[in-house]
Design a protein that fits this description.
The chain contains 9 helices and 14 strands. The chain is α+β, with helices and mostly antiparallel strands and 364 residues long. A hairpin with a 4-residue loop joins strand 4 and strand 5.
Length: 364
C-alpha cells in the first residue's frame, strides 16, 4: 500500500486518569502479550527488528534548513515535537530553549549563531533512506475504536498500521513522511523509505523489565541512558516542560499540552511518585466531565495508541500525571483533561530522566 493511501488518524484527547503505577520497571506483566513491545525478558534477541539499514545514495537529498535544525534539536534533547520541516510554534520554542541553555541571544529564530552552535561537530545527514526490517513490519496492527469499552476489548492498543509505527520511530507523522517521499513509495518489510535521521537504538536490557520497555525504547529510537533530572518545570503559558540538573542547568525541553478550562493545569509544586512504563489504563468515567452517561469503568491494555501512550509519570496530585499520546501532531494545539501530554518519544525520553522524588513545579 502506498504512503498516501495508508493514512489512518483519529482524534483523541488525553484525560485525567487512574493508572496503576509502580516505580522503575516493576510493573506486573501484561495480561496479553499481543503487542510486540511487551515481550518478556525471556524473549529472544529482538535487536534485528529495530536495526534499520541505511541505503547509500548517489545524489544526497537536500533537507530544508528547518528540517535540518529540527533533527539536530531532537538529538540534543530540545524537542521540536514532530519533525516535519515546518517553522512553527514548537520549532521556535525548541530554538529558544536551546539558545537559553547555550547562552545565546534568545530570539526563537534560526539565526547564524544558533546554527553554528547547533550543528557544531555534526557530520550526520538530516535524513536517510532506510530499509524497513522484517521484524519491525510485523504486527499485530489494530483499528482503534473511539469508545473506551470497545478499546478495552482489544488485546493491546497497538499502532493502526506500519506507516504510523514508522512515523513514531522517526519522531514524525504519517503526513510528514508522505511529503518526504515520492507518491508511489511502498510501506512494507524490505521497502526503502526516506526518514528523519534518528539513529537506531539497541533493545536495552533492563532488570525486571517484564513489559518490554527496552523494546519500546528501541521502537521509538530513544536511548536508555539519559541525563538525570533534579527537577522539572511545566510552564502553561509557554506550553513547555523543562528539565534541570542539580546545578539548575536546563538539560532538555519538550513541548506539552497542559489542561483546559474544565480541567486546568494544577499550579503548584508536586513530586513524582513513580513511573509506569507500558501501563494498563484504568478508565473511570467519574473523572471525565465529558464521559458518556452509559460509560462504565474499564481496563485498557497497554500500547502506543492508549489514552496515555507508552508511559505514565505519576504525580503527588491525585489523578494527574505526565504521559504520552496517540496523537503527536496535537501536542500544544489541543486541550487536555488536566494532565501533561507529550509525544510518545518525548515521554519515553523523559521517563528515563526522572525517578521517584523528583520535584515538579507547574506554573502559569
Amino acid at each position: 500500500m502506498s504512503l498516501r493511501n495508508h493514512l489512518l488518524l483519529a482524534a483523541l484527547l488525553c484525560g485525567a486518569c487512574d493508572v496503576s503505577v509502580t516505580d522503575a520497571n516493576e510493573s506486573q506483566p501484561a495480561a496479553n502479550a499481543a503487542y510486540q513491545g511487551h515481550a518478556t525478558a525471556a524473549s529472544p534477541d529482538r535487536n534485528g527488528d529495530y536495526a534499520f539499514d541505511i541505503v547509500r545514495e548517489q545524489n544526497a537529498w537536500q533537507a530544508s534548513p528547518t528540517l535540518q535544525a529540527q533533527v539536530a534539536l531532537d538529538r540534543r534533547g530540545f524537542s521540536p515535537g514532530v519533525i516535519d520541516g515546518k517553522d512553527g510554534m514548537s520549532f521556535k520554542s525548541a530554538l529558544r530553549g536551546f539558545q537559553q541553555a547555550n547562552r545565546l541571544p534568545v530570539t526563537g529564530e534560526y539565526d547564524r549563531k544558533t546554527g553554528i552552535a547547533l550543528l557544531e561537530g555534526e557530520a550526520r545527514p538530516s535524513t536517510w533512506l532506510v530499509k524497513i526490517p522484517e521484524g519491525f513490519a510485523r504486527g499485530p496492527f489494530f483499528d482503534i475504536p473511539n469508545g473506551m469499552s470497545e478499546k478495552a476489548s482489544l488485546p493491546a492498543l497497538t499502532y493502526r498500521n506500519l506507516l504510523e509505527k514508522l512515523a513514531e520511530r522517526f519522531h514524525t507523522t504519517p503526513e510528514a513522511l508522505t511529503a518526504m517521499n515520492p507518491p508511489d513509495t511502498k510501506i512494507a518489510a524490505g521497502a526503502t523509505v526516506r526518514v528523519p535521521a534518528i539513529e537506531n537504538q539497541p533493545v536495552a536490557r533492563i532488570e525486571g523489565d517484564e513489559r518490554g520497555w527496552g523494546e519500546t525504547l528501541a521502537s521509538l529510537g530513544v536511548a536508555k541512558d539519559q541525563p538525570q533530572a533534579d527537577h522539572i518545570v511545566v510552564d502553561k503559558s509557554e506550553g513547555l516542560l523543562k528539565v534541570y540538573n542539580a546545578d539548575d542547568r536546563m538539560i532538555a525541553q519538550f513541548p506539552v499540552t497542559t489542561g483546559s478550562q474544565h480541567d486546568p493545569l494544577p499550579i503548584g509544586e508536586w513530586t513524582i511518585k513513580g513511573v509506569s512504563r507500558n501501563p494498563d489504563f484504568h478508565y473511570n468515567p467519574d473523572l471525565f466531565w465529558d464521559s458518556g452517561s452509559k460509560d462504565e469503568k474499564a481496563v485498557l491494555k497497554p500500547g502506543p495508541n492508549g489514552p496515555v501512550g507508552v508511559v505514565w509519570i505519576d504525580l503527588s496530585k491525585d489523578h494527574y500525571g505526565i504521559h504520552g499520546t496517540p496523537e503527536p501532531q496535537t501536542i500544544g494545539r489541543t486541550e487536555s483533561h488536566g494532565c501533561i501530554r507529550l509525544t510518545n518519544w518525548d515521554a519515553a525520553r523523559l521517563a528515563q530522566m526522572v525517578k521517584t522524588g523528583v520535584k515538579a513545579k507547574f506554573q502559569a
